[in-house]
Task: structure prediction
Amino acid sequence: AQTVTQSQPEMSVQEAETVTLSCTYDTSESDYYLFWYKQPPSRQMILVIRQEAYKQQNATENRFSVNFQKAAKSFSLKISDSQLGDAAMYFCAYRSPRSGAGSYQLTFGKGTKLSVIP
Amino acid sequence: EPEVTQTPSHQVTQMGQEVILRCVPISNHLYFYWYRQILGQKVEFLVSFYNNEISEKSEIFDDQFSVERPDGSNFTLKIRSTKLEDSAMYFCAGEAGRNTIYFGEGSWLTVV
Result:
């Protein structure tokens, strides 16, 4: 079974600065998807960014980018120019592709609580 | 981005009562899911639903739970006889088959 590990329970960043959240995962599959979800105090789960394992290029979405290291099974999220609205719980998640033999469910890490200091 | 909508946003129920949580997925979604998050813990998979039947379920999804899509739009999760440990945020999610799952805003269930 796949596992996802987020080793930083809490992080903080100064407004306008850059922060990197870590995520590692364990899998024997070669093709899969990785996601970062944001959960603000409202508790809604909001998709931030996604990465396909077969793509070498790191995904970016505005101020959010990832550093995907397939060999190291590492998938970190970088938030640039941090804003107060970025304060939330961030979850890393893994998913097998629908065409694969693995489970299609999302497997989540335990989350990293990000605080943004004004 | 179209939204997955869930009702109710919050429900308080007595232990032993039946609860139905409702979800309206995005119209082009084909796969539907329920996840739950106990306060302070990580998000856990409950069940996936495709083509009007369960395609996968976790060990959490025991006989007390059921899902259905009775009218082709609403997707419901029923808990037959709630227990205190069922208190959690329940998320409905949908997917159009492009390997990206979109979540609703969640239904917060409190069992007293």
Notes: Chain A is about 0% helix and 50% strand. The two ends of chain A are 41 Å apart (CA to CA).
